[in-house]
Every structure is written in C-alpha cells, then in structure tokens.
Amino acid sequence: MENKILVTGATGNIGIEIIKLLKTKNANFVVGTTSGEAIEGVETVKADFADKSSLKKAMQGITTLFMLSPSHPESLKWGENVIDIAKEIGVNHIVRSSASLADINSDLLIEKRLGTTDKYLKESGVNYTITAPSSFMQNFSTSLVSDYKSGTIYQAAGDSKISWIDVRDIAAVNVEVLLNPKKYLNQTLIITGSESLNYEEVINLMNEVLGKETKYVAIPNEAASKAMADMHFPQFIIDLLISLNDSIKQGHFVETTDTVEMVLRRKPIAFKQFVTDNKNVWL
Q1: What domains lie within the chain, and their CATH numbers?
Q2: What dihedral angle (degrees, nearest 10) is formed by the CA atoms of 197, 267, 247, 189?
Q3: Nearest 5°: CA angle at 263, between 174 and 188?
Q4: Mean pLDDT in the chain?
Q5: What digits encode the pLDDT tens for the residues 139-186?
Q6: Which residues, 6+ apart, have CB-to-CB distance to 38 below 8 Å?
Q7: 51 Cβ partners below 8 Å, 6+ apart?
Q8: What is d(CA 183, CA 118) in angstroms, rounded to the nearest whole number?
Q9: Start-to-end CA span in the chain (Å)
Q10: Contact 4, 62 (CB under 8 A)
C-alpha cells in the first residue's frame, strides 16, 4: 500500500517546514487544519481535534499521521481523540511531535502533560514514533524579535544551558520518519542541536553576528507571570510557560543527542548559522 500522509498542525512552525520538504520530495500527503481553511497549493482537509467526526473524515485512506497537539487546556483530551480515531480508522503509524522534556512522572505542568499524551500513544497499540525536540532557535526570530531589537531580553530561565534546535532540522527529521515509518518503529527520537548555550551566550553570539549590544536579564517567575498577565495571556499559557522555564532551570534541556546526524547524516544547524541565515529579521 502506498504511504499516504496526513500532516496536522500544518500552520505552525514545524508544520510549515514539513510541508515544504514533503513538496520537494513529491510525497503523497494532505494537510489538516482546524477550520478546514485551505493552505495554498496543498490538498487540505478539516481536522479539528475536538471534533471526532472531522477526524474520521480526515483520516480516511491515511496510512501515516503527523500529530502535533496545540497548547490548550483541552490538549490531553484532544490527543486521545486523535489517537483513538487513528486506531479505529486503521492508520498504520502515528508520528507524534512531543518535546525532549516530556515526563509523565514530573511535577512540572508542561513535562507531565507532554508525557501523558506520549504514554497514551505508546499504550494505544498503534505503531508510533515520538519525535521530541529541544527548544526552538526560531523563538528568537518570532516571539523574541521585538525584545532583541529593544536591547534587552527578559526571561525567567536563569543561566541554565539549552540544546537549541533549528526548526528546519526538526522538520527534516520528521519528514524522514514520515516517509520511512517502519525504520523508526516504536522509537522516541530526542532532537537537539550539537551545542548547549544559555540565553546570555546565545544573545552574545547574536550580537557578534548582527553588530548589536542586546543584553539578557534573568528575572524571577513572579515578574514573568506579571508581565504575561499584563499582556493578557491566558492563565493556562502563563502556567505552561512558567513550568517550561522551571524545566530549563532544572537542567532538563542541557542534553545533546546525535539524532539529527543519525537520521539526516549531517550535523545539526549551528546557532550561529541560524542567525546568519535569518539576520534580516533583527536588523
């Protein structure tokens, strides 16, 4: 049977890059969006994680599913919906995008929630691969652009190191798995860069490439929570991000792996290369 792929989370950072790569490889795939709104140039179906009927329709004829759950209070239930329907429909393989910090036994909100969905998938009886990236380099070219340009980045992450990974590498690993799912059957692939850098080191590197003098200021959780509340972040997102910072401070992002090199047979994109490739974003 020909491998037909459904990509959910198609409008997110990882999904966009996956679609680009699948196109270049002439893969047989469709994408799913919550509303069913079409993505230009790609066959699009409605795949609303809260709507089981839409999931059943979206998964008809699908052999391999890329599953990326949104950051939402209902994401655990939605993850169960996707996995249950995939099993019912007869999807052969689920490629679940999780995170390197996932841990069902953790007291930290983000780690426990990610680990809970991972566990549900592992126990579902559906063939799976879990791809678990570290923190995205692209955070600096999206949510932190204004802060960098302003001259100061405030984060409640202390001075702990992070094995930053370029989203392009995350997508490339996922595409390799989607196209060759049997090769990575029932495995968890921790995806990291080849170097661990804390925020201060990263910003100094950016300054070197960009000729800027931006600084990093570590702030306490209370200050971060208040800043997000002042920007009207939902409380669930605030709690999630604070737990993410706690995970960083506890050293849960330090580890580097050789997954990118093993899967793609090349080195991961270095942070300096990422900055060089995207320098116009900050200038």
Answers
A1: 5-135+166-192+254-268 (3.40.50.720)
A2: -170
A3: 60
A4: 97
A5: 999 999 999 999 999 999 999 999 999 999 999 999 999 999 999 999
A6: 44
A7: none
A8: 19
A9: 49
A10: yes
